[in-house]
């Protein structure tokens, strides 16, 4: 298997190099056979890397410890189900996965590329293959997962216990795929720059692939938060850890891009801005890979540490310099045919939204690179903590959510204050009522929380107002039942209404974050079997503890019964695993989750008597809404991406009310 | 097994990559065609105006704009659509005129079959 794996990586590398060469030469000379051949080399690379992936999976399943990577990331005791997780538990396997994911995206994007991309396609293919070439060179020469040991050990070292969690089946691959998927819209933009003709040809495909990368990162980030919440044992879900931030920053830039590209699609504006945005997104993605796979800063994701930092830093430097040099070189032809007509328009709202998103991304970037800068400047590593991120990014995020409520109510091109006032009146009044009621009912006194509730409610009500008004109007004009009218409303403009579904998910996230950040309760207790402890309105009784020993770990499960106001709410199981070979205790929290709040119990420590244990009890309000947001993000993106039926719009153009039938065109 | 898989992979790769050159039946679709691009650009701009009108209708329908705003923007959009149709007609007429001129010049430059044979 080692020989097959190494040989297929080499073949993939040669195919990719061939594809780069023939793409650019073919594009320059207009040589169609060369371009077709280059594209086929792209498809073959995916096939070859699939064989390579299969070889590594097979080596894991066969416990082939003669392969160093298999010996370092699995052992005989590892349940078979975690083979897939072990595959990317280390750097070399992750890089093979990244290369395969990038190759698959490249093949898919070129196979599905619309015909009108025409001469742009070989340039885009060349750029994609050039990026892939980098990963394959690193894989073959510096981090080959098929390197062998002189003597195969009888057993491997095993998988990192923190990775043995259901979230790990999807979180790392989604993040890695999301990061490399940005390469597709980036290659289209850079391809257009290389070609020297920057029109709107790439916009549709760029939007689709930008959205695909965005949703992969979004779901990856949410799953990562869920993983952290359930396994890291501190009761939180986001710690502004450098590796979390590494995926969060390109996601923010992509969020700006998928909004801004709509303006180019609709109005032919922001051409220069969109190219700059996708360059920034890809650069931040490359930075993410540097942080993720290069391991330059301390992180809870220390299992990803490596010595390849300089390689990814070089890649990041080359990508940044080359993409922006090309951007400035072509600046003269990047001017948009139209410009902003009014500050009170949807385009202007999109622009402010972009600036806020980039603001958050760059504040986060500053927090991530600060330890590196401080080390270079003073020789001491000074890390930036949560308070910095929360205090700077918090207000920016609130402004962003407020804009999320206002933006959709503004028409394109221009609006008047009168119409804006009218559009904002209903959501504004309902927001005031709900916020006041919430503040009184739940005794909310912290000003920032009141503001957070108000802003999130306003955004939610704006969306609902759009849906309700549209549905009622459709129902009135067609006589359709409300559900049918609602379905037709969504189908009438999928990008818009799909976007609203995602906005609703953001509102849920905002409520979850505000609730859990300011009103959580926490208590550390020691309990013997039969003891009780109270937190919030709950009483928790330690019922029993059981232990089971496996080859690589001892699992202990504490059973706790929960009551509230004398009413039994059932039992909770809090779990911990002791892994002697890793000198690690891994925990799995017992969680009782409701829309109102989570009761969260961590089994921290078992005393030598085997009957007394340390627990951390928490009540985290509204966290449930954060996890509900995930399906809504997926649903909204699917709706937004769903291809629209071709309409004969020319027949539907209305005349200006009150003008003669021949009116309209002067 | 390894040798077999690798040999198969290399053979398939060679055939798949070389075939386009051997067949050489792909047209020169890759060359930039300024007239076609210009025409396509205008068509896209027109589609965009139509899409804008549709969005305008929707905003009006949803009550996000007053009738006066709607009328003004609709009038402006229709004017832009008309302008684009006029531009497209000009491009098509110019392209047709160029084609005619190319035909005329070729007729003058290339001898007819009969004349060519006589000279040979």
Tell me what you see in this structure:
The complex is a heterodimer of chains A (666) and B (120). Chain A is 60% helix and 12% strand. Chain A is an alpha+beta fold. Among the domains of chain A are: 1-164, no CATH class; 493-643, no CATH class. A 5-stranded antiparallel β-sheet of chain A has the order 2-3-4-5-6, with no helix packed on it. In chain A, strands 1-9-8-7 form a 4-stranded antiparallel β-sheet, covered by helices on one side. With 120 residues, chain B is mostly helical. Chain B is built from 4 helices and no strands. The longest helix of chain B has 43 residues, at 67-109. Mean pLDDT of chain B is 79; it is low at 116-120. Classes of the chains: A alpha+beta (666), B mainly alpha (120). At the A-B interface, helix 1, helix 2, helix 10, helix 15 and helix 16 of A face helix 1, helix 2 and helix 3 of B.
């Amino acid at each position: 298997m080692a020989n097959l794996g190494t040989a297929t990586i080499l073949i993939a590398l040669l195919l990719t190099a061939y594809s780069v060469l023939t793409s650019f030469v073919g594009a320059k000379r207009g040589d169609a056979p060369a371009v077709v051949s280059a594209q086929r080399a792209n498809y073959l690379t995916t096939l070859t890397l699939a064989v390579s992936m299969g070889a590594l999976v097979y080596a894991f399943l066969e416990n082939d410890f003669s392969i160093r990577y298999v010996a370092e990331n699995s052992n005989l005791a590892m349940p078979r189900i975690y083979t897939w997780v072990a595959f990317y538990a280390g750097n070399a396997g992750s890089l093979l996965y990244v290369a395969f994911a990038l190759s698959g995206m490249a093949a898919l994007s070129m196979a599905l590329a619309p015909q009108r991309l025409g001469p742009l396609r070989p340039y885009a293919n060349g750029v994609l293959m050039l990026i892939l070439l980098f990963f394959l060179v690193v894989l073959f020469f510096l981090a080959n997962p098929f390197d062998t040991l002189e003597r195969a050990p009888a057993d491997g070292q095993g998988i990192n216990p923190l990775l043995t969690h259901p979230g790990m089946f999807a979180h790392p691959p989604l993040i890695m795929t999301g990061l490399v998927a940005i390469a597709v819209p980036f290659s289209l933009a850079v391809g257009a720059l290389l070609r020297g003709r920057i029109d709107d040809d790439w916009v549709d495909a760029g939007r689709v692939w930008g959205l695909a990368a965005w949703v992969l990162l979004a779901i990856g980030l949410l799953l990562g938060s869920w993983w952290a919440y359930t396994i890291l044992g501190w009761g939180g879900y986001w710690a502004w850890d450098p590796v979390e931030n590494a995926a969060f920053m390109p996601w923010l830039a992509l969020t700006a891009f998928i909004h801004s590209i709509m303006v180019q699609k609709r109005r032919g504006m922001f051409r220069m801005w969109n190219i700059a945005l996708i360059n920034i997104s890809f650069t931040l993605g490359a930075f993410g890979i540097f942080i993720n796979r290069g391991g330059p800063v301390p992180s809870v994701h220390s299992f990803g540490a490596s010595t390849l930092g300089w390689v990814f830093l070089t890649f990041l430097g080359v990508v940044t310099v080359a993409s922006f040099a090309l951007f400035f070189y072509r600046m003269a032809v990047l001017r948009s045919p139209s410009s902003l007509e009014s500050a009170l328009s949807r385009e202007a709202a999109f622009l402010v939204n972009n600036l806020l998103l980039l603001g958050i991304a760059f504040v986060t970037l500053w927090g991530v690179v600060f330890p590196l800068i401080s080390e270079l400047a003073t020789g001491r590593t000074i890390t930036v903590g949560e308070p910095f991120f929360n205090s700077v990014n918090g207000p920016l995020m609130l402004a962003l959510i407020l804009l999320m409520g206002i933006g959709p109510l503004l028409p394109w091109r221009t609006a008047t204050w009168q119409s804006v006032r009218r559009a904002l009146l209903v959501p504004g009044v309902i927001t005031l009522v709900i916020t006041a009621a919430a503040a009184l009912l739940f005794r909310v006194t912290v000003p920032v929380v009141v503001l957070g509730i108000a802003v999130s409610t306003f955004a939610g009500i704006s969306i609902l107002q759009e849906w309700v008004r549209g549905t009622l109007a459709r129902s009135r004009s067609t006589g359709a039942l409300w559900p049918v009218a609602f379905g037709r409303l969504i189908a009438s403009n999928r990008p818009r209404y799909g976007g609203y579904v995602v906005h609703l998910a953001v509102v849920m996230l905002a409520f979850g974050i505000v609730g859990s950040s300011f009103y959580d309760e926490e208590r550390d207790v020691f309990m013997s079997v039969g003891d009780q402890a109270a937190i919030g309105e709950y009483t928790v009784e330690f019922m029993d503890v059981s232990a089971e020993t496996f080859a690589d770990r001892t699992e202990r499960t504490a059973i706790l019964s929960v009551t509230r106001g004398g009413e039994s709410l059932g039992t909770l199981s809090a779990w911990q695993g002791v892994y002697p070979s890793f000198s690690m205790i891994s925990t799995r929290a017992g969680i009782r989750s409701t829309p109102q709040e989570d009761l969260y119990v961590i089994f921290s420590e078992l005393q030598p008597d085997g009957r007394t244990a340390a627990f951390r009890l928490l009540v985290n309000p509204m966290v449930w809404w954060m996890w509900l947001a995930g399906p809504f993000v997926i649903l909204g993106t699917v709706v937004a991406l769903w291809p629209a039926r071709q309409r004969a719009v020319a027949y539907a153009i209305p005349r200006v009310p009150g003008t003669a039938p021949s009116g309209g065109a002067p | 097994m390894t040798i077999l898989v690798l040999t198969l992979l290399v053979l398939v790769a060679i055939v798949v990559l070389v075939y386009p050159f051997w067949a050489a039946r792909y047209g020169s679709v890759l060359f930039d065609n300024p007239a076609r691009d210009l025409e396509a650009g205008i068509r896209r701009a027109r589609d965009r105006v139509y899409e804008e009108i549709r969005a305008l209708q929707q905003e009006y329908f949803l009550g996000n704009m007053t009738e006066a705003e709607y009328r003004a923007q609709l009038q402006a959009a229709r004017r832009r659509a008309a302008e684009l149709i006029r531009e497209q007609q000009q491009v098509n007429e110019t392209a047709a005129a160029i084609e005619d001129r190319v035909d005329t010049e070729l007729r003058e430059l290339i001898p007819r079959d009969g004349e060519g044979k006589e000279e040979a």
